[in-house]
Task: inverse folding
């Protein structure tokens, strides 16, 4: 059944407001998404009624909070079809998850002269941690190039993967170009040479099915706040065999089994990777967000977003002087573009005064901007609560912006 967008928008209190007297058009979902009532209520109910540290107390409140936290872990497991909740680590977000893998994997498996493979379209979060690891370990960062449509040049894989390649990290959907990468194919080719793959799903989980077992990725990471959950929380999925073998990234409370001054043994999975008091309210809020998304139906979300993608593409292509960056065949509803002779910041400011929120700049993908020889773009990123009318108003807003600034 098709989504009822007016009903869905009613679930998001923030969307009801006006900005500078105009109805808000929020097209900055790539940066962060808004929260439905159920997530807001879940988090405030936890603060009001359950606030208590998890896993440690034997008292009623601590037990209830622990139960909700572990239920949230099960919701994440089910959402991405992981084999076991032992494979679901709660982190501070995508960035926290990738740093954790880059550190732990680097410590255990990377030697001087080894190679790490990433792609030209990575977010800085899936680039800098690997670069830092390469510096620490005297290893080399190699890059799978992309073409001018914003699609990876996979023919280069055979040359780039060598016997020194230790891990490959790739973004599932690009936050600045909208490209959805053929991760299953990349993983199949990497695995044929025994190379594990980390997939950055920060921009994918909110737009389509993610099945980590079908994909066969070794690690999958995402942030709660980009899938309608709270900020400061996220997920690191790792195959159990890797998580068992990797050393923990951080030491502290909860991740230990026995501690003496002579040495420490670690807790079982997933707790080995959850040192200290975690952001358990964020994790439980994420669980509520995933259940909300599932109640709408990923198939239905995809159908509505595909419709918005077609509309946006038509509208943007119809505006003379607009250049679209990222023309991949398989894409999410993220559009990067420039208006002839107009600085993206100026356009962003004018659009803001029309009540339209977009992102301008490099979108934490400076190498992508370098590829196209530009310093930044305007980015409009849509999710299921956006509408046809908003797309039409946005296109009008762009035309007006061009008239005003040309
Ligand atoms: N990877 C991608 C593709 C992203 O879009 C983002 C956020 N813009 C990140 C990683 C980092 O996410 P976070 O800031 O939530 O850790």
Result:
């Amino acid at each position: 059944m098709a989504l009822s967008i007016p009903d869905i928008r009613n679930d998001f209190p923030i969307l009801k407001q006006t900005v500078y007297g105009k109805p808000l058009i929020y097209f900055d979902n790539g940066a962060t998404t808004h929260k439905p009532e159920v997530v807001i209520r879940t988090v405030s109910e936890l603060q009001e009624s359950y606030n208590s540290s998890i896993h440690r107390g034997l008292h009623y409140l601590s037990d209830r909070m622990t139960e909700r936290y572990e239920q949230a872990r099960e919701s994440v497991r089910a959402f991405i079809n992981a084999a076991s909740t032992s494979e679901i680590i709660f982190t501070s977000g995508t960035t926290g998850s990738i740093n954790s893998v880059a550190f732990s994997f680097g410590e255990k498996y990377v030697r001087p002269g080894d190679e790490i493979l990433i792609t030209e379209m990575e977010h800085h979060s899936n680039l800098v941690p690997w670069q830092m690891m390469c510096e620490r370990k005297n290893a080399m960062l190699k890059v799978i190039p992309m073409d001018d449509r914003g699609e990876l040049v996979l023919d280069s894989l055979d040359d780039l993967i060598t016997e020194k390649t230790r891990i490959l990290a790739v973004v599932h959907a690009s936050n600045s170009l909208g490209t959805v990468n053929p991760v299953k194919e990349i993983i199949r080719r990497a695995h044929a040479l025994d190379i594990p793959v980390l997939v950055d799903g920060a921009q994918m989980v909110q737009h389509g099915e993610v099945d980590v077992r079908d994909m066969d990725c070794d690690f999958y990471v995402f942030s709660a706040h980009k899938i309608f959950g709270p900020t400061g929380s996220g997920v690191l999925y790792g195959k159990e065999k890797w998580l068992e073998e990797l050393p923990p990234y951080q030491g502290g409370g909860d991740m230990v089994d026995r501690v003496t001054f002579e040495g420490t043994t670690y807790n079982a999975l997933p707790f080995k990777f959850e040192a200290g008091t975690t952001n358990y309210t964020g994790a439980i809020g994420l669980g509520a967000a995933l259940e909300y998304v599932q109640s709408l139906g990923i198939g239905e979300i995809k159908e509505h977003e595909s419709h918005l993608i077609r509309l946006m593409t038509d509208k943007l292509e119809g505006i003379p002087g607009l250049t679209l960056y990222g023309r991949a065949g398989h894409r999410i509803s993220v559009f990067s573009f420039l208006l002839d002779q107009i600085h993206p910041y100026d356009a962003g400011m004018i659009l803001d005064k029309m009540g339209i929120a977009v992102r301008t700049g490099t979108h934490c993908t400076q190498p992508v901007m370098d590829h196209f020889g530009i310093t930044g773009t305007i980015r409009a990123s849509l999710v299921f609560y956006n509408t046809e009318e908003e797309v039409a108003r946005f296109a009008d807003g762009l035309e007006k912006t061009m008239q005003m600034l040309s």
User: Anything to note?
Assistant: The chain has two domains: 5-30+298-405, 40-294.
